[in-house]
Design a protein that fits this description.
The complex is a heterodimer of chains A (179) and B (134). By secondary structure, chain A is an alpha/beta fold. Chain A is built from 5 helices and 7 strands. Chain A has one domain: Glutaredoxin, CATH 3.40.30.10. Chain B folds into 2 domains: 101 residues, Helicase, Ruva Protein, domain 3, CATH 1.10.8; 28 residues. In chain B, α2 crosses α4. Classes of the chains: A alpha/beta (179), B mainly alpha (134).
């Protein structure tokens, strides 16, 4: 019995090693949960897409639940996501804040004219200040911020109708009872 | 005695005049652009371009890496130390942004593994050679 086990030991070690690699390599470190969850939304002072002179600060996040969506006219996946954001806006459940990331003001505006504007406020982040503060790696990315201005949820990639129904809307319901 | 008194008066004059002057001085020490560039390269080489495969932000042409390079330089210009800049990036992107994994509880095994493997190999080799002798 012991001898048989000894003979098999290379195989056992091999299988163990494969299992280790399968676990380690299948996890994408870039997809790890944001370490910003439950942290206050970073302080900011940014201009809006329409007005290069306006200064909007993080104070607009106080007192209501916000959906913060990072987008750009260069972002192909954003076109796909956009109808879902338009529908979320229709529900009136959250303040919709857009972050126009690494864009050109004219292009950003034209893009919204073409696909519709679901946002209450659109911040202009031409040089990634806000994006890096939020640990953004690509667009679209979406954050849910609670009434106290804390980040409660981060979604990488397109927010689908299912994501809204099954994850984001229940979270908003929960946050509303928290307040 | 007189000398000391004089020094005290001169000093007190200096203090009264320099105190308000100091308040209006910019907080950040002035660093030459050359120095900023030198330090930013060191910091940038330690930071992963988060949209690339295993490239530092100094080596990458990605637009986000470009913006991160600018932000690193701005922070150094504002008087932050290299560690403060790296800590800031880590507080935004997590450990992933560090090209070299930090030594901490969830990475002890990672750092120890080469030495453990070396020890295991040595033990195995010694057992084999002893068996051959006997």
């Amino acid at each position: 019995m012991l001898k048989a086990l000894k003979g098999l030991s290379p195989l056992i070690i091999f299988i163990g090693f494969i299992a280790f690699l399968a676990f380690g390599l299948s996890r994408d470190p870039a997809k790890l949960d944001s370490i910003l969850i439950d942290q206050p939304f970073p302080d900011f002072s940014l201009t809006t897409l329409d007005n290069p002179d306006a200064q909007v600060t993080h104070e607009i996040l106080n007192g209501q639940i916000s959906l913060v969506n990072v987008f750009g006219s260069w972002c192909v996946a954003c076109v796909q996501e956009h109808p879902n954001l338009m529908q979320i806006d229709q529900t009136g459940r959250v303040q919709m804040i857009g972050i126009n990331w690494r864009d050109d003001r004219d292009k950003g505006r034209k893009w919204l004219n073409r696909y519709g504007d679901p946002y209450d406020v659109i911040l202009f982040d031409g040089d990634s200040q806000m994006a890096v503060d939020l640990g953004v790696t690509g667009a679209p990315e979406t954050f849910i911020v609670d009434q106290a201005g804390r980040i409660r949820y981060k979604h990488i990639g397109i927010v689908t109708a299912d994501d809204w129904r099954n994850t984001i809307l229940p979270l908003i319901n929960r946050l509303e009872t928290e307040a | 005695m007189i000398r000391q008194g004089l020094t005290a008066i001169i000093l007190s004059v200096f203090i009264t005049f320099s105190a308000p002057a100091q308040e209006t001085m910019p907080e950040a020490p002035i660093i030459s652009e050359q120095e900023i560039e030198k330090r930013a390269r060191v910091v940038g080489r330690a930071l992963r371009c988060v949209v690339c495969q295993n490239q530092s932000i100094e080596d990458s042409n990605a637009s986000l890496a470009e913006d991160m390079r600018t932000l690193v330089r701005a922070r150094i210009r504002d008087g932050q130390t290299n560690e403060e800049v790296i800590d800031y990036m880590q507080s935004r992107y997590g450990d992933f942004v560090l090209l070299e994994p930090p030594v901490q509880t969830n990475t002890y095994l990672l750092w120890a593994a080469p030495f453990l493997l070396l020890l295991a190999g040595l033990a195995w080799f010694m057992r084999l050679s002893r068996r051959k002798q006997s």
